Amino acid sequence: MKEHKNFWDRNAGRYDRFMRKDRAAYEKIYALLRPVVKAKTVLELATGTGLIAKSIVNAAAHIEATDASAEMIVEAKRDNRSAKLHFSVQDMFRLPYAEESFDVVIVSNALHIVPQPEKALAEIRRVLKDDGVFVAPTFTHAGNSFTGKVRAFFMKLAGFPLHSRWTSEEYLRFLRQNGWTVRKSAVLKASFPLTYAECVKSEG
Predict the structure, then answer these.
(1) What is the 3-state secondary structure (H, E, C) of 91-153?
(2) What percent of the chain has pLDDT over 90?
(3) What is the dihedral of CA 105, 57, 14, 96, to 10 degrees?
(4) What is the tens place of the pLDDT at every residue in 37-62?
(5) Comparing C-alpha atoms, which of 52, 64, 158, 70 is closest to residue 103?
(6) pLDDT band at 15 (very low <50, low <70, confident <90, very high)
(7) In this predicted structure, what is the pLDDT of residue 112?
(8) pTM across the whole model
(9) H or E, element range at 186
(10) In b/e form, how buried is each residue of 75-93, taking b as 16+ CB within 10 angstroms?
(11) What's the CA gap between 154 and 51, in Å, rounded?
């Protein structure tokens, strides 16, 4: 996990430039998220430089935005203008929050780059209220176009930590197999296909 963290620490300053290319897809994500977080207590994992949290905080009651990379959190805090938004360094596999602390948990573009994503899902399930909503938009790389494969190859060379390669269908199946009911999903056009998944806890 350490080399994974170092990658993000090294690239924190460049991250926003990299994400800017997919601005249109992210604008759609913000539009989908705002009604979900309206007047709710929200936890965002793998917030990076806080792009999503900053874009939806006006709709939410409060957002705890966390990342494993201290450098990312330094960048995120730099232009945080909301008293409702709090940034901190946390490990998504060992969160310091009590059970059922949050109405909404968001993890964007992180489940495919962490080892053992099912462990992260179990921890998310623990801190999310039973009637809460889990939102996990994720780049789904597998089976994508030739240019997507070339880009993935160069990202791997650059040290980008990619652990899971899912198609959109495989990703949604992975969520269902780990105790989530997908109540809404959409595939958004971006550098890689971006699968938006909105989930609730499965019964039993």
Answers:
(1) ECCECCCCCCCEEEEEECCCCCCCCCHHHHHHHHHHHEEEEEEEECCEECCCCCCHHHHHHHH
(2) 62
(3) -40
(4) 999 999 999 999 999 999 999 999 99
(5) 64
(6) very low
(7) 83
(8) 0.83
(9) strand 180-188
(10) bbeeebeeeebebeebebe
(11) 24
Q: Which two tokens stand for residue 82?
A: 């909301």
Residue 129 CA, chain-centre distance (Å), reads: 18
Strands 41-45 and 102-107: parallel
Q: Count of CB atoms within 10 A of residue 114's CB?
A: 20
Identify residue 191 by its one-letter amino acid code.
Answer: S
- Give percent helix, percent strand, percent coil of the chain, each to the nearest 5: 40, 25, 35
Instruction: List the structure tokens of 15.
Output: 């991250």
Output the six-digit token pair for 187.
């595939």
Higher pLDDT, 34 or 26: 34
pLDDT of residue 105: 98
In angstroms, rounded to a whole number, what is the distance separating the alpha carbons of residues 154 and 118? 27
Q: Of how many residues is the chain composed? A: 204
Q: Which two tokens stand for residue 43?
A: 């936890």
- By the 10 Å C-beta count (0-12 exposed, 13-18 middle, 19+ buried), 7 is classed as middle
Q: Count CA within 13 A, CB hemisphere, residue 46.
A: 21
Q: What letter represents residue 61's amino acid?
A: A
